[in-house]
Amino acid sequence: MRPVYMISGGITKFAKAHINKDFRLMVKEAYDYALRDVPRFSKDMIDGAVGSYFSDHFTRQLKAASMVQDYLGLCPKPSKRVEGGGATGGLCFQSAWEAIASGRMNCCLAFGFETMSRVNTWKGNEFIALASDTNFDFPVGGFYSGYYAMMVQRHMYEFGTTVEQLAMVSVKNHVNALCNPYAQKAKRLSVKQVRESPMVATPLTMEDICTMSDGAATCILASEELAAKVCDRPVRIAGVGSGSDTMRMADRPHDKVMLLPHEQESDYLHLRYPGVHSFRGGRMAGKLAYEMAGIRNPLEELSFVELHDAYTSSEIQTYEDLGLCKYGEGGRFVESGAPFMADVNYGLDIPKAGRLPVNPSGGLLACGHPVGATGLMQAVFAFWQLQGTTSKHLGDDTLQVQQAKRGLIHSHAGTGTYITVSILEAT
Q1: 34: which residues sit within 8 A by CB, 6+ positions away?
Q2: What is the C-alpha to C-alpha distance for residues 246 and 295, in angstroms, rounded to an integer?
């Protein structure tokens, strides 16, 4: 298995609507940005591409990835499309990694997009709900906000998680995004404002939930030899992992927790796992990525995390799946201040800010969630962090994690049916 490096990336602004741009133009803008950032690189060096978009329904086009391949001038080079619900972008990134690691390609472009503004919110929610079991969940009103509300209700019941802790996640991510010009919904919020925003599915309010978006992102991955020739500061992909779970939550068994190296069986003697409060696929993805990257304690060995916070509750659940804290302690983890940036004013009393920043970009809550692009957006922001170039790309160094060595990106589908974790490392 060959070492794989990321040498460049680009994104468009995520927005409620890009009414004057179709998906091809959005990807082209992100692609052109990535090319400009590596002037010694030529598109002739690209051996093939992987495209990602979640839903054929939003574009009303079954072969949209092929249309992008043509628009970028990459025909007749190899190309394929990947899809996996909310994890589509993360799966795309790992698919491009596989092409290089296997030796099939020396350079692979990963591109992703979604144009969700072409339908109204209810129709968009219906399309997204088609990622559930349409024979079982969908006929009884299975929209995802309802699923996540049910899961966090259980988390609150079992572990004492509070709505104020959920709101702190929203405050953090929306304030982070104030320094991210690519974000859709940057704003300063208070815990009170989050809780007083319209209720969607108890206890989740509008400010606890990400929004539908238009947007695109691209990543260029390369072999070690090519990366050294064209990029001054390539970033190594040190570990990849993925996991899965049953589509129907009622089918998920109770078993022992898959332990990470810094955990003990005695930590979880009385935990019914995974229940509906945890994502077993997320634990598997993290475990495999940590093993490949040689990480034993993620809280001590990671510099930052960009995770899939479609809901404030899912960010708290994912802290636990990734082993940033023990199962049941996610609410207290955010309350401790650990996942906040050290030098940003959030208007909150946070005692230990900056231990491990989570979603310094603003995450899905504030950046938006054009599904096929989201996991690749995370990779681009992680790449800039590890290069130390956020000031160059964002026009401000507020979000730069100092001396960043390793970053984790996490992409999540459905109620945890596909999950990817990739670990990037500065060189």
Answers
A1: 8, 9, 10, 218, 219, 220
A2: 28
Strand ranges for 139-258 from DSSP E? 199-201, 204-205, 214-223, 235-244
Q: What is the mean pLDDT of residues 390-398?
A: 96
Model pTM score: 0.97
Q: Are 110 and 101 in contact (CB under 8 A)?
A: no
Tokens standing for 356?
A: 């491990």
CB count in 10 Å sphere of residue 165 = 20
Q: Is the CB of residue 102 less than 8 Å from the CB of residue 73?
A: no
Cα→Cα distances 167→107, 206, 212, Å? 42, 11, 20
The model's pLDDT over 290-348, given as tens digits with 9 standing for 90+, comes to: 999 999 999 999 999 999 999 999 999 999 999 999 999 999 999 999 999 999 999 99
Q: Is it the case that residue 141 has pLDDT exceeding 80?
A: no
Q: Is the dihedral of CA 33, 37, 41, 46 positive or negative?
A: negative
Residue 391, CB-side half-sphere exposure with 13 Å CA sphere: 6
Q: 27, 216 in Cβ contact below 8 A?
A: yes
Question: Are the beta carbons of 49 and 104 closer than 8 angstroms?
Answer: no
CA distance 49 to 148: 34
| Closest to 369 measured CA to CA, from 34, 86, 177, 23 | 86
pLDDT tens-digit readout, 116-131: 988 888 788 888 888 8
Is residue 194's pLDDT more than 80?
A: yes
% of the chain with per-residue pLDDT over 70: 99
Listed in sequence order, the residues at least 6 apart from 294 whose beta carbon sits closer than 8 Å to its beta carbon are 238, 239
Which CATH number is associated with domain 4-118?
A: 3.40.47.10
CA distances from 337 to 122, 340, 401 (A): 36, 5, 15
DSSP 17-46: --TT--HHHHHHHHHHHHHHT-TT--GGG-
Q: Give the residue among 345, 337, 307 at the shortest CA–CA distance from 422.
A: 307
Domain parsing of the chain, residue ranges: 4-118
